[in-house]
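A common beginner's mistake is to predict each chain separately and then try to dock the pieces by hand. The better habit, illustrated here, is to supply every component at once so that their relative placement is modeled jointly.
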Amino acid sequence: MDLTTGLLAIGAGLAVGLAALATGLAQGRIGSAGVGALTEKPELFGSILIMLALPETLVILGFAVASMIILLLKTGA
Amino acid sequence: MLLPMAKIRIVGAKEKLDTTLCAIQRLGVMQIQDVAEQPQAPLLTKLSLDASAVERRNEISFLVARLGSLAAMLPQAINTADLSRRYDAASLMPTEELIVDARRVVDELGPESQALALRRDQLQAEEASLTRYQATLRKLLPLAGEIPQLDGYETVALLIERRASGVLDLVRQQLGELLGDRFELNARHVDDQTTAAIVVFPKEQSARVNALLGRENISPLRLPQELARVSLTETLATMERRLAEIPREMARVDDELRELGRSWGSTVALLRAVLTDRLRQMDVIGLVGATRYTFVLAGWIARRDVKKLKDTLAQEVGHELLVEELRVSGEELKQVPVALANPPPVRPFEFLVRLIALPRYGALDPTPLLAFFMPIFFGVILGDIAYGILLLLLAGLVLRTSRRPVYRSIGQVLLLCGFWSVLFGVLFGEFLGALGHQLFGLKPVWMERSGATLKALFVFALAVGGVHVVLGFVLGIWEAFRIRSHKELSERLGKFIALIAVFWLVAIVAGKLPRDLTTPGTVALIIGIVLLSVPMGWLGGLLGPIETLGLVSNVLSYLRLAAIGLASFYLAEVANRLYGISTDVAIGTVVAALLHALNLAIGIVSASIQSLRLHYVEFFTKFYESGGSPFRPFKQSGV
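With all components supplied together, the output reads:
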């Protein structure tokens, strides 16, 4: 494995890892606020579920970028 | 679909109001609207209960509460078929007779059942208390032999944390200063954490000794009154005898309560239900309007039930009532309550739509679309024959054991999800990950979910996303056209054209369409952005392109169908490899089974949430008009 391949692989890892970290941070805040809201208004469950799942788009996009890098690696190889 | 509703107005002589309300409540198909919300409200006065009716309402309310507490005390031994028959008959009884009956039941049954319930509570409390004392006294037992039994002396037991046992020296010193040599304090470590001590002192010094212990923050062990005068050994023996007696005594009390439940349970449940109905009738009176001699009552009813209501009122109240269907004005459409009425295969998905919000009356009900797409998305994500079969078994178990409608709905949804998981498992050739391939050469019918075909899997997920989002826009455009909303029509049409143009341009970049078509694609994109920007006013120039990027993000979001499915596949593979690592077959099997169970649990939760999210966020936002209020007909509480 040469340096370029290694750096690309690290880039793929960072793409998905940092996106997952950001998603986790966002979900943590939304989740804690959501649980607080649910104790007051249980009927908000659906809306809170949506808000909780919203930041996951970040990690999905990170995953897409990482996968594209890996595909690039395979094509290069 | 949404049940078509009609607005009904009933006008009749005031003396017919009670009978009319009774008939409407028994039929249970009409939601009564507050007179203040009706267009002719200024011409009507709002009815209210007079002083005697308020008094009667308070009495009924009290009796319902008493009957409720009696029902909670008595074990349920009710024959529901018999009760339903009696309920129908009791519903026709005059309220005064019901009140007399309820008073009699409360007076006759109340004291006896309360005494039994109290006795039961006392026995439970005594059992809990004796068990606690027993454990504590056992710790003090080693000191028991060292305590002299003297008349005129009091014995106090102390339990102290072992690490704080030094405080006993201080207590001994202070007792010496207080009582001289007229006391005895024996202490011993009874286990790793506890030091037990017993203090004997003259009874007349009780207050001073207790004050001293209080100052040192030591709480003496208080024994039940009847055990305070005997020795520890005797106390323990007495406790054990009592603990053996209590369950027998409780069983006797339970038998008596059960007997009471058999004799009175049905009557209590019946009177409670019928009186609750009468309370609701009284509460509804506040919604009714009136002129000098007539009442005016309006409300919503499913169109299919209008004839049934007219016939019932004619039969039970008479032909003096005027029952007419009113025209619903455009403004009133917002107030029409919503009832979902889908065919049985789609009905279980209604609760998933209610989770976010009911559709506005007249809007499109998304339940059939959710029922079609959601299990397919779930299947794409989970996509494993073994997991799908386990899910089918779980769904079967839920449906077999559960009677609550919401659990049955979940069971039916899981059943469909399980079916699609098995189907996509066959297409992907997965049985506990790649184990099926290793064990019995299972091959994918369509494509393998692994690195080799990653690109194809992504294209598939994006294609599903494209179709789903485009379908959402088509429905949205149709809805906007149907309600003649030019603003929404322009915005949705613009987004639709922009999205198609993006697909077009991507196809050109990917070499699937000739480069000559770039100009029409770019023009379509610009037209789309302009159309969607127009309703936004002067901000449109800025927000339009951002919205277009949002559309691309909407489609990319469907990549989760592939991504989460892949994560599930690789976790299954980890489980299979862990089995291979262990030299012990049993340990390997247990570890692999546990990891597969975990993967299945995660798979079920994440596949459900992600499929729902794709609908709620990516799909519904293109056409869904929420904000309907649920249809709540005025009906009997039932037994």
